[in-house]
Amino acid sequence: MDFIDLLQWPAMFATVLAAWLIASQNLRRRTLGFWCFILSNLLWAIWGWHVSAWALIVLQICLAVLNMRGVRKNQPAQAQG
Fold first, then answer.
1. Considering the domain boundaries, does residue 79 fall inside one?
2. Is residue 34 part of a domain?
3. CA–CA dist 49, 16 (Å, integer)
4. Structural domain harbouring 56
C-alpha cells in the first residue's frame, strides 16, 4: 500500500473534525473548523490526483470556494460612518 493511499484516512478525519468544529457557537472553534475543511480539501485533492478521481478534485475545489464564501459572508459588516 502506497503512502498516498493512506492519505484518505487523515483526509476523512480532518473532514469529520471540521464538521464538528464548524457547528460550534464559539468563533474560535468555527475558525479552526474552516481551516480543517481547507486542509481536508487539500488532502482529498492530493489523494484524488493519485487515483485519477477528477470529479473528486473538482468537488474539493468547489467546496473550498464555498467555504471561503461562507467565511466572507459571515464577517461582521464594516461600520459605515
1. no
2. yes
3. 21
4. 3-72
